[in-house]
Amino acid sequence: YLIEREVIRVGRSEGNDIVVATPQVSAIHLELKREGDDFRLIDRESTNGTRVNGERVSNVVLRDGDEIVLGRVVMILYSQAASPKLEPVMVRPSAKLPPARPPIKIAKPMPPGSPPLMKR
Question: Is this model's pTM higher than 0.70 or not?
Answer without folding.
Answer: no
